[in-house]
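pasting Phosphatase for the record, 263 residues
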Amino acid sequence: MIAGEVATPRQNNLLHYRRMALGYPYYQFGLRFKRRWTERDVLATMAELCGVIPDPGHLYGDDTIDPDKTIDALEVMAERIGQAARRRERVLLATGHPEILTPIYVAVGRALRERGCTVLTPAEGWSYVPEVGAPPELRRIRYVEGMVAVLEGDDDRLHHTHDSAPMEAMLAELAANSTASDGSSAAKREFWPDLAIADHGWAGAAGQAGIDTVGFADCNDPALFAGQVEGKILITVPLDDGVRPDRYEPLTAYLMSRAGLIV
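structre below
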């Protein structure tokens, strides 16, 4: 159910492509694009990298994610994660789909820690009121199992988000820590992440900051794919990000196996 004919309606995809092209912040995920994207450009990119139906005359009904494109992107993601494990890099993990995708990140995070990687957890407890895309209610950064950044509300529930502001706050704290140390490039390397594994605005903000970023995105979330085209996102894995968490277990096992995190 995470690839092939997916549950995201075509009309929803096209609406999001139009809004990204028009510069709506909620649909740009914290990325600042170098080129002018038209709705047709976005559709062509999504057909190439995600596998949606390329016909601009297809306006209603089902849409698709090409399973081969999902697997190909997973291979690139796995190679970069495996590299992080071998180098014992500093890694950020974050998701805007905490009720669904968190198990993927937790599994990868545990394995990276076991191999000597540092999983960074900056700005825990930082709070704000989102300006767009959510009710005007307080949200704060929480780390699931001490490693995966998510947004939590005053109701103690975890919340979906497209917003880039939390990741921007995390990176600002890391930058401040390096400056407070001695300001040298060595100090920045001590605090700055080598890799971000994320989705939505968490991934967009990391990529915009120049961090190697690998991410997941649905066929109605074109920003990370556009960021990949512009060289700001290393790879975007296309998948339906709204099905039951157990549906991602084979994908998680495949990713970790190809990354050399399990045998």
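Residues 21 and 41 are 9 Å apart (CA to CA).
The two ends are 26 Å apart (CA to CA).
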